[in-house]
Amino acid sequence: MRKKVLLFTSQDIGNDVFSYLHSREDIDLVVVTQRTRRDEIYGYRATLDLCIESGVRALTPKALDDAFLSEVERIAPDLVICAYYPRIFPRRLIDIPPLGCINVHPGLLPQYRGTFPTPWCILNNEEEIGITIHYMDEGIDTGDILVQRCHLIGSEETGHELYRRSMKLCADLMIENFDKILRKEIKPRSQPAGGSYYNKIPPQYRIDWHQPRSEIRNQIRVHARPYFPAFSFLMNKCLTINKASLIDLADYRAQGAGIICRVFENRKFAISCVDGCLLIEDYDLFPILRPDDIELHIRVGNRV
Questions:
Q1: Is 57 part of a structural domain of the chain?
Q2: Nearest to 174 by CA among 163, 189, 186, 190
Q3: Residue 250 binned pLDDT confidence (cut-offs 50, 70, 90)
């Protein structure tokens, strides 16, 4: 029997899940999506474009209001899938599909609930990121768990890189388990008590050089391009940093935080923190007004 699937999605994950469901001859697909400026800024391909190209019906509601919910009831989907759709589902929507509403989430629930957990994995020094497929209820990421899987986080992976990779990992896990979900072959389990919730990180981070160097490095990773990089000020310039690593200097002695203590020929430089040094490997200094501005500012003894 053909099944009606209503897919709520956006960004990169939408392309993968859409393409899979659209290729299935036993699936009648309707998509709920939105086009945002983030698609252009970060290079995501809007799922709405795929719907238009493929002739798949797409809904673009501004809100999950009564008019939209009435339309969903007319569609009468057997299953609803939510894949990176930024709205909380009301009870009325959750109750419509007989096979339930399924969400794919980039966090190992009950830890890392929330709208934007991936950078917090880096900030919390996690070695792995978890992916969870779960039923939706009226809470935020609190429904019964179907499938979970963990993946290693790269030691140099930035916040944006992990965010985009998490979408691919979520799509792969959903596609791998879709038939089992459709046939209700996976026994759901309740989430254990407790857990944690993480919202978006602040969009800008001015470096506090009195933090431990590992914490500063993690902040640099999660804010690296194409986001606004972690920044500080060096005399009359703004210093933005995209990459830094821990460095141990044989002749290093404890000193004030934020002091340039070594400059290398390739213009990389070491800067002191409260518990050692960071090697600043990728940075910008602006405004650059003269050819020798970098040499004048990146000097041993200058304080950031």
A1: yes
A2: 186
A3: confident
